[in-house]
Amino acid sequence: MANLCLPCAIGRGGRRPKQREGDGITPIGVWPVREALYRADRMPRPRTGLRIRPIRPDYGWCDEPADRNYNRPVKLPFPRSHEGLWRRDWLYDVIVVLGYNDRPRSLGRGSAIFMHLARPGYKPTAGCIALSRRDMLKVLALLRPGDEVVVT
User: Is residue 118 part of a domain?
Assistant: First the structure.
């Protein structure tokens, strides 16, 4: 994919090397793009070269460092700490899963680092990268397996 520089929101803790779960930092580095997810009940399937699948109400992401499923998708209900991907707001209507701390995983070093939709005014995230809907759809149309997101 060509290099793109787009307005985005980042974590409330800024950009730094990721230190720990919940620090609000967007990790600096080069992160492979794994797949995309979208809310089929709210929008048509976005055009992309990535593997893409609809989000279901029982989709979650484990953020409990002590759990063997840490930084992995889980099925809800889930007994340990997790983030639900089927949100009432529209921030996760489209998600690009980034390969941060996933291969290999380091327990407690951060989880669920996604590209997702931005709040108005690009308000800070919990550590993710957030784009406008228009820019997200533009990026998705360009993404292919093997592409990477660079955070500097």
Answer: yes
3-state secondary structure the chain: CCCCCCCCECECCCEECCCCCCCCCEECEEEEEEEEEECCCCCCCCCCCCCEEECCCCEEEECCCCCCCCCCEEECCCCCCEEECCCCCCCCCEEEEECCCCCCCCCCCCCCCEEEECCHHHCCECCCEEECHHHHHHHHHHCCCCCEEEEC
Tell whether 1 is covered by a domain. no
| Structural domains counted in the chain | 1
Could you check whether the bond before residue 65 is cis, i.e. omega within 30 degrees of 0?
no
| pLDDT tens digits along 56-115 | 999 999 999 999 999 999 999 999 999 999 999 999 999 999 999 999 999 999 999 999
Does 116 map to a domain? yes
The amino acid occupying position 77 is P
Q: Are 92 and 85 in contact (CB under 8 A)?
A: yes
- Give dist(CA 7, CA 24) in Å, integer: 19
Residue 150 counted as domain residue: no
